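User: Run a structure prediction on this.
Assistant: Running it now.
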Amino acid sequence: IFHRLPEVMEIMDSRRSCRIVLRVLAVMAVLGMAAAIHAQGLFGFLNMGSSEAICSGGKSVTVERFSPMMPGKYPAVIVLHGSDGMDQGGDNYRTVAQLLADAGYVALIVHYFDRTGMPANPEKAAEDPDHFKAWVSTIHDTVKYARKLCDVDGSRIGVVGFSLGGYLATA
């Protein structure tokens, strides 16, 4: 569209119309740059989230917290990673958490592998009953933790999971 701007300007017969078109084009350019910057993860400084530890089964488990920018009480969503864990898929799960925070939710990513260690075979992780029970217990501990947060409406807590995390979310 920018290469046709001179033609568009000739068609416009009033200065007011030209100013409106230029403003619209400027806004489109700014939004395009913002989208590109966000896609590259450069907006993370706005709300990078905080990292805290909870105790679950005598182990320290990391919980990353992403909150809306405005103070208040919000519903919470506990985000459960897949069998790829946070080392491989962490950026994707953080993007989801940030989008949830931008939409008005407190998002909590629980690193439930902290409780048991990374499974030897992530593809068959759900088949280990000891790990499964420990992870479900960790999720319950995270719900209890979320209820105590000052920016969370403790009566509105949900869980979403990806792959193995989805399996755990339904347990």
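Residues 42-46 have pLDDT under 50 and may be disordered.
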